[in-house]
Design brief:
Layout: H1 2-11, H2 17-32, E1 40-44, H3 48-52, E2 60-65, E3 77-81, H4 89-92, E4 98-102, H5 111-124, E5 127-133, E6 139-140, E7 145-146, H6 153-162, H7 173-181, H8 188-194, E8 199-205, E9 208-216
Parallel strand pairs: 1-2, 1-4, 2-3, 4-5
Antiparallel strand pairs: 5-9, 6-7, 8-9
Length: 217
């Protein structure tokens, strides 16, 4: 279908626009943390593939995701199931060199849980890199839909069910509501509130801020 082809060109895993942006963001990460290969990393809400496919391998990566992940990973990666806002005690008691998170903050479920997420980021490592899409970029990034984040909830759910560029079409209204209610983009003021001691970097597209990155080297 034409819509699938368009989505693949925009956000697919191959030579898409999003893949090129991810490569640029990875280069930013390496410039911010030039000794990444010597660091222990906690990845909150991520996937092992991010690190396996990266150009630089940290000393150790611990991936914690609320989903069940494939435990068949290289020996320098560990995976656990856990809520990034309420980590199990055995993880919350550890310390790392860097906390990393990519496009997770907007999915944790409201201000109070974003505060808990940020508290864990600050507590578990002296350095962090936390990226999230920017609320006021004109295209909602999860559905590739212009202005969708500003619509009433019911309208967002209707678009989630019908918009041709959606990654997965919602089977029914409840599934659509589940998707849109668990996606809440944030702005710069909120990021500065959650990460007051960080540098808030803007990732720009055509001069417009597309995503925000809280960096504490």
């Amino acid at each position: 279908m034409a819509s699938q082809s368009i989505r693949e060109r925009v956000v697919g895993d191959g030579d898409s626009w999003a893949s090129r942006r991810r490569a640029e963001r990875w280069a930013w990460l390496l410039r911010a943390f030039p000794r990444l290969d010597e660091m222990t990393v906690l990845d909150l809400g991520g996937y092992p593939s991010t690190w396996i496919q990266g150009d630089t391998r940290p000393a150790h990566v611990h991936v914690v995701n609320i989903e069940d992940l494939d435990a068949n990973v290289p020996d320098w990666i560990a995976v656990d199931r856990g809520d990034a806002c309420a980590l199990p005690a055995e993880i919350a008691s550890r310390r790392y060199d860097l906390v990393f998170s990519n496009s997770v903050l907007e999915h944790v479920g409201g201000h109070e849980r974003r505060m808990r997420f940020a508290e864990n980021v600050h507590k578990l490592a002296p350095a962090h890199w936390v990226q999230t899409p920017y609320r006021y970029f004109p295209v909602e990034p999860h559905w590739i839909a212009p202005g969708m984040q500003f619509m009433p909830v019911r309208a967002r759910a209707a678009m989630a069910r019908r918009w041709p560029l959606a990654h997965v079409r919602s089977a029914n209204l409840r599934d659509a509501l589940d998707g849109v209610l668990w996606t809440e983009l944030v702005d710069k003021t909120q990021m500065r509130y959650y990460f007051p001691d960080s540098v808030i970097r803007s990732e720009r597209v055509l001069g417009l801020t597309k995503s925000l990155i809280a960096v504490k080297p």
